[in-house]
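pasting for the record
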Amino acid sequence: MSLKGVELQIALPKTFEAGKVVEQEQQHVNAGQELANVALQKQTERNRTAVLKSDKAAQINEDDPTNKKENEQQHKQKKEQKSSSDEQVQHPFKGHFIDFSG
């Protein structure tokens, strides 16, 4: 395939433009990946500190014997409230007259 002089005048500048466009797209993708990596690192750091904070709170609650008693009492109260609320719940249609005649 031979190119004439006129065809080369058009083809060469377009190849340079295409190369520039491809290079810009690659830089854009690389920049996006870097931003994603930075965001991921920040998120993992937040997750690590959040876990450490909750572990400290859990250790304090477990070591204090008065908190254990209070927790048991609260648990019993919640069970009692739940059982009493279960008794109060009415069946959605039992005991009600529903007329199915059209």
